[in-house]
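Uma2 family endonuclease, Desulfosporosinus fructosivorans. Tokens?
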Amino acid sequence: MSPTPKELSASYSYADYLTWPEDERWELIDGVPLNMTPAPTPKHQEILGEVFRILANWLKGNRCKVYMAPFDVRLAGPETLDSAIDKVVQPDISAVCDPQKIDDRGCLGAPDMIVEILSPSTFKKDLGIKLTLYESSGVKEYWVVYPLDETVMVFILQNGQDGKPTVYSVPDEIPVELFNDLTIPLESVFR
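Tokens:
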């Protein structure tokens, strides 16, 4: 059973999360359950599909794999018990280069790259809470896509910190830091 409004102030773990209805989408950040936004817009889905397609095609035959939501990312160490995991997110796109992190329930540990596509209701979470969470978890490359103004902010982890992002817009091509020879043309992503 999913948490009631009164229970939302309690602290939960991944063990609790596993008991909630599968038709509801939740994230846990420091044990606090956050209900996912309503169904994504067609524009969100088109952007998601194009970025995923480009990454998946480029990674074919590579040890790195790319996954799209819904896909649980448990931000914890490999030996952490479900009852001790208090950070579970569902990024729009996750690229994982360590096959040991992938199991039947998603990813256990930080993905190498995460892409989040903003909506008005996720703006504060994706640029505040999640930016800090991904940085502290060791996500090497974090993209925040703004569909309305067709821009992308790219954060690169260096010396344990993300620093100032690089901002791209149409007609730019974004170099994927994690994958040396890959660039993603924003004309393709936003059209």
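Residues 40-190 form a domain with the tt1808, chain A fold (CATH 3.90.1570.10).
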